[in-house]
Design goal:
Blueprint (H helix, E strand, L loop, with lengths): L3 H16 L3 E7 L1 H4 L9 E7 L5 H17 L7 E7 H5 L7 E6 L2 E7 L5 H10 L1 E4 L3 H4 L5 H18 L6 H20 L5 H11 L4 H12 L10 H28 L1
Parallel strand pairs: 2-3
Antiparallel strand pairs: 1-2, 1-6, 3-4, 4-5
Length: 260
């Protein structure tokens, strides 16, 4: 199996040649940067910053590049997540009025409108991303108002009770638990933690849910299979309860701030 560095080197050179001056920067983020990458399961997470919004013509080019990468590294097929976004979109409030392109595990390459949800990723790349091409992320990507980042995180939290209804495979259930743990910790301490780190800290903070959180962590990092028994009812209850608690705490904080 090709190492992550070999795959990233291939991707970087192919993108540099095909996109030329349209590509302003390419950045690695996620578990490989956070330090808890699992060779057998983790994805490679990248942000490609472009000179202009992606369109259907560029999508055809990118589809060919991704197909070629999958042929050269079949064991990484479906495990490379790339978001293509223009610098103008990142500079706009929540990317409003712009299109981005995405490819991720279980999701084919496609165009979609930029939303405030994407701000969380852009800020994580700016703060922690590893530069593969272009200037350091902190120099290319603009600073984002912390209030906007918090609003984007709360938007994620607000949407999770609806999203979790489709999380029937155990892998999706594990992802739901770990991702909500990350949001919980980010809102508490302002830091972007890895899935493992967030799980461990949240299990300590929410002992009532520690068993479920440990299950989600172990499934994710110990190569669980989607043929394993899931824990859908518990996962749904966890998401509903923790989401509601986070939002209620935010309302109390806002009320206290207004009263001062």
């Amino acid at each position: 199996m090709a190492s992550p560095d070999m795959v990233l080197s291939d991707l970087r050179e192919a993108w540099r040649e095909a996109l030329a001056d349209r590509l302003l920067g390419l950045y690695l983020h996620g578990s490989l940067v956070a330090g808890d990458f699992d060779l057998g399961r983790s994805d490679l997470d990248l942000l490609a910053v472009l000179a202009g919004d992606p369109d259907e013509k560029l999508l055809d080019v990118l589809a060919g590049l991704h197909a070629d990468l999958d042929r050269r590294h079949p064991q990484w097929a479906g495990r490379i997540e790339v978001e293509y976004v223009s610098l103008d979109a990142v500079r706009a409030v929540g990317g409003r009025g712009h299109l981005i392109a995405r490819i991720s595990p279980g999701e084919s390459l496609h165009l979609l409108p930029a939303t405030t949800h994407r701000v969380v990723t852009w800020v994580a790349v700016r703060d922690y991303g590893r530069t593969l091409l272009g200037p350091p992320a902190g120099k290319l990507l603009p600073a984002v108002d912390p209030g906007l980042v918090r609003a984007a995180l709360l938007g994620h939290v607000r949407d999770w009770p609806a999203w979790v209804l489709a999380m029937t495979p155990p892998g999706a259930q594990s992802y739901a638990v770990l991702t909500l743990c990350r949001a919980f910790q980010r809102l508490r301490n302002g830091r972007q933690l890895s899935k493992r780190q967030a799980a461990e800290q949240t299990a300590a903070a929410l002992p009532r849910w520690a068993d479920l959180i440990v299950w989600a962590r172990d499934w994710w990092y110990d190569s669980g299979h989607d043929t394993d028994p899931g824990r859908f009812d518990e996962v749904r209850a966890f998401v509903n309860e923790v989401s509601a608690a986070i939002l209620a705490a935010e309302q109390r904080k806002a009320y206290t701030d207004r009263a001062r």
